[in-house]
Amino acid sequence: MSIISKDISKAVDILNADELVAIPTETVYGLAGNIYSEKAIKSIFEIKKRPFFNPLIVHIPSVDILETIVSHIPEKAKLLADAFWPGSMTLVLKKQSTIPDLITAGKDTVAVRVPNHPVTIELLKQLLFPLAAPSANPFGNISPTKPEHVERYFKNDIDMVLDGGACTNGIESTIVGFENDEPIIYRLGALAIEDIENVVGK
Ligand code: AMP
Ligand code: MG
């Protein structure tokens, strides 16, 4: 039987039980679990065969939740979030002490974004916790842009792929970090430098 389903409430139940669901985003499908569940986060690394020193991106339903994840929001981070969320930009900021070391690979910063996909935003709104969600592919394999790709990779490892259709852009998010409250590009992705400079200057 196929593990692909559009049932958001089933995804909520699985995630509440500390298990994983593959979720659609505008970039690629992600392998998602509760950021506060050690069991869920460990299984993300195990199923993907991802090294533990590679930190995960935290997915939230809106900028309103950001202050529960990070301890300091520079003015330019606020401007960028208002301009590009939901969307393919990830902010790396000082973490709250409540964010587990497994998520951040022991760093004092955490990567966070609001994905631009209506199904996943609805899912995140129905959960009491954010989701860690690296791409839903085994380490070193091509990132999945369709639910069928994820099913092929992981049908023996997870119970559900939340069906959000084909991903529209297929390119990773652009990652922006901060030093002395000034933005620095850590990884160039779907969002262009010019778009960022239009909001915060060069
Ligand atoms: P992805 O592979 O698209 O899930 O993105 C994860 C990537 O985000 C990691 O490989 C890092 O490059 C980056 N990242 C996550 N957390 C941090 C952090 N705290 N500081 C710097 N980069 C981070
Ligand atoms: Mg990846």
Helix content: 25-40%
Q: Spatial order of the strands in the main sheet?
A: 2-3-7-4-6-5-9-10
Count up the helices.
8
Number of strands: 10
* Molecular shape: globular
**Strand percentage:** 15-25%
Give the structural class: alpha/beta
* Straight-line distance between termini: 52 Å
Largest sheet: 8 strands, mixed
Query: Taking all residues together, what is the mean pLDDT?
Result: 97
Query: Nearest-angstrom radius of gyration?
Result: 16 Å
The SSE string, one letter per element, is: EHEEHEHHEHEHEHEEEH
Report the uncertain regions. none
Q: Which molecules are bound in this entry? A: adenosine monophosphate, magnesium ion
Description:
By secondary structure, the chain is of the alpha/beta class. The protein is 31% helix and 20% strand. The chain is built from eight helices and ten strands. An eight-stranded mixed beta sheet has the order 2-3-7-4-6-5-9-10, with helices on both faces. The chain has a two-stranded parallel sheet with strand order 1-8. α1 crosses α6. The radius of gyration is 16 Å and the shape is globular. The chain starts with a strand and ends with a helix. The model has no long low-confidence stretch (mean pLDDT 97). The site of magnesium ion (MG) has 3 residues, from loops.
